[in-house]
Design brief:
Layout (H helix, E strand, L loop, with lengths): L6 H12 L6 H34 L8 H25 L2
């Protein structure tokens, strides 16, 4: 596969190589693709969560919005984030 970068993208990759951040232009492209894949995975997870929330609302399983329910939701979201981060940290070589 041949990939044509813009002059700005080439300069950006060259600076990363010159500073030792990356070893090659191929590394730059691989890292960009890895970030894109992660973003798309997160997007898919978000859309799934949104679908689940809509289905829950349709079943009448909605939550009352109160200061306490917002604190509880924030706590749940933080815990899920911590769990995901810990999983990623323990599986990263």
């Amino acid at each position: 596969m041949q990939i044509d970068l813009t002059p700005d993208q080439k300069a950006f990759a060259r600076r990363a190589i010159e500073t030792g951040r990356l070893r090659s232009e191929e590394d730059a492209v691989q890292e960009a693709l890895a970030l894109w894949e992660e973003r798309e995975r997160q997007r898919a997870e978000f859309l799934l969560t949104l679908d689940e929330a809509r289905a829950s609302l349709a079943r009448g399983e909605d939550r009352a919005i109160t200061p306490e329910s917002m604190r509880q939701l924030a706590s749940e979201v933080k815990e899920r984030g911590r769990t995901r981060l810990l999983a990623e940290l323990t599986t990263t070589p």
